[in-house]
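Lecture 7 notes: from sequence to structure.

We start with a single chain of 214 residues. Read the sequence below before looking at the structure.
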Amino acid sequence: MHMATVTRLFDTHTQALEAVSALEAAGFDHHKISLISNNADNWHEGHRHADDRKLGDLNGDGENDIAEGAGKGAATGGVLGAGAGVLAGLGMLAIPGLGPVVAAGWLASTAVAAVAGAAVGGTAGGLLGALKEAGHSDEEAHVYAEGVRRGGTLVSVKADESERERIETILNDRRGFDSQARVGAYREGGWSAFDPAAQPWTTDQIEQERARYR
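Now the structure, written as tokens:
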């Protein structure tokens, strides 16, 4: 069985949460779905301190003391419904170059491991390393990571290759876009690659960026 990773970037977290809800409603296992969202505008309610790396039960201690806050955030977005399996695991995470993000699922777990691996072996860490490990090309990984830095929300799904088209349709129908849809605009502005050492974008910068694509 050949596995595929399908990833799309969304300009707003609401669109992304709706996409997650639609995926679960279509029968996709929530353990195969991951979400990483910029939280510069503090859309996620009830979160812990930004430097708290606990992500649901990411550290395996049986605790998930941010699930209640995640539920509030989902309810605010009006999309709790079928997506509750993924959304119940939402928590805060600090990723180099992104600052505080709201995240859940396997990609976020891989990003944490990639940070640790980069510190030891000098490999690509954080979100870049996680995306590459998931099978994305170097360019795709850089564009997707930059998209989150600029205020976006990433949704990634692991599935059998035969399910790729159905997943892509669900994500595309909810205004998700792939790396090729945004890389040109980024490069026109002088961008060349995601820099994990760069300062996270401010709320004002993110709002200006989102306004470009409305």
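The mean pLDDT is 79. Keep this in mind for problem set 3.
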